[in-house]
Amino acid sequence: MPFLIALILVLLVQWLHLRLLRLELPERAHRGLPWVLGLVHLPLVIFAGMRIAGLGLPGALPLLRVLARFGFYFQAFTVMHLVIAMLAEGVWRISHHDASSGTDADAEEEPAIDPGRRAFLRTAALASTGGATAFALGGAREAYGDPEITRRTLPFPDLPQGLDGLRMAHLSDLHAGPLVGPAALRRWRQLTEREQPELLLITGDLVDSRPEELEPMLEAFRGFLPPLGRFVVLGNHDFFDDPRPIWRDLEREGIRCLENATALLLRNGSTMALMGLQDPMARNGRFRHMVFGPGPRPAEAARDVPADAFRICMNHRPSEWEQALEAGARLTLSGHTHGGQINPVPGFNSARILGPRTEGLYREGGDLLYVSRGLGVVGLPIRIAATPEIAILTLKRG
Predict the structure, then answer these.
(1) Which pLDDT score is estimated for 110?
(2) Quick one: which of 6, 47, 110, 323 could link to 296 by a disulfide (CB 3.0–4.6 Å)?
(3) Angle formed at CA 239 by CA 237 and CA 241, multiple of 5 degrees
(4) Angle at CA 77, nearest 5°, toward 97 and 337?
(5) Is residue 205 domain-shared with residue 332, that is, in the same domain?
(6) Which of 84-88, 248-252, 368-372 has the lowest mean pLDDT?
(7) Beta carbons within 10 angstroms of residue 278's beta carbon
(8) Which CATH number is 285's domain given?
(9) Structural domain tally of the chain?
């Protein structure tokens, strides 16, 4: 059903786009437009259908993914083009209202297509293309430039003495895959290692959609061994396919994946309970109609945790903070939102559609939540007013 709804929306948007292009382009191009639009979007429809059905064609799939991604980008351009055209149409009607309102009711009707209107819309279309290009270039520069290193000291009055000064690196949403290559992953590792954290924590979306995309990430972080270890939880994108290869390869590299589980870490005689909650996507069965877990289980994650242990919880989605609090977490680390990733409206974070916790630090009584903007991108290879982030968090007693 979601696929059918998405298909109907794609067809509706392209029907509107076809009407607009017929107005903007010369008549000799009209006959081929439906075929061109159909060919651009056919790979996208086929690829999406195959992914949802859990099918795969190993020989053709890489090329199909490239063509499908091009169709997705064209769909994004289409939406922007239609919005600009609607605004241009509104400006045209307002500016020509006085001239048209004085005509008699029985006056001769104007031509079906006003040449002036056509020229105005063509100019708007050209301006929208130029604006989109500038928007994309600026967004790509922000997305693929060095991430911001956010350094925060987090005070807790009841922090055990031995954990005072513990320095953690919190990464999230790497999305290794078509839009995030080995060079970016290696750079993130270098910048993180330079901070000399005692603990490396990654809160999900290690890959974009396929288990084999994990290898460049593992290669980039190979040999980076903080004293207290490396831990991850999986995000929703990590469950877009069978996650068992991801679990296997993480274990092979000595990176512990905490899925409704806890690792007890000892530092200067004090114990920290590092908990991880499984993402709800594990029980979705969205693509291969297979369920890989129960989703978040706070009681299971907190089972057998010593009463005097300071509890930190990793869970991919900040919307699951209440689940972490149920497990007794004093500090919760999340990602998922990308800080909105694309925030074209100043002062408004696009991640608000996912919930009220979009980025940065949140407090509930004496408990804290830190939401990372993440490092990678999803969908479009751009970020606007959402600089990628490496968070260096230091625990402080007091």
Answers:
(1) 45
(2) 323
(3) 105
(4) 115
(5) yes
(6) 84-88
(7) 27
(8) 3.60.21.10
(9) 2
Q: Which residue segment(s) compose the domain that 52 sits in?
A: 2-95+112-140
Among the listed residues 264, 229, 227, 259, the one whose alpha carbon sits nearest the alpha carbon of residue 246? 259
Q: Assess whether 205 and 241 both reside in one domain.
A: yes
Rg (CA), the chain: 25
- Regarding beta strands 310-314 and 331-334, do their DSSP bridges make them parallel or antiparallel, or are they unpaired? parallel
Output the six-digit token pair for 52: 């949802």
Question: Which residues lie below 8 Å from residue 314, measured CB to CB, with a gap of 6+?
Answer: 201, 203, 231, 232, 233, 258, 274, 275, 276, 277, 332, 333, 334
Phi, psi for 86 (deg, rounded to 5): -60, -45
Contacts of residue 6, defined as CB under 8 A and 6 or more positions apart, other chains included, come to 48
For the residues of 284-305, what is the DSSP string, one character each?
Answer: T-TTTS--------HHHHTTT-
Buried-exposed string 325-347: b where 16+ CB fall within 10 A, e elsewhere: bbbbbbbbbbbbbbbbbbbeeee
Contact assessment for residue 354 and residue 114, using Cβ atoms and an 8 Å cutoff:
no
Q: Going by C-beta distance under 8 Å and a sequence separation of 6 or more, which residues neighbour residue 374?
A: 171, 172, 173, 174, 175, 205, 335, 336, 337, 338, 339, 388, 389
pLDDT tens-place string over residues 67-82: 888 888 888 878 877 7
* Residues 322-368 pLDDT 10s: 999 999 999 999 999 999 999 988 889 999 999 999 999 999 999 99
Q: Rounded CA gap, 77 and 333, in Å? A: 35
Compute φ and ψ for 225, nearest 5 degrees: -125, 85
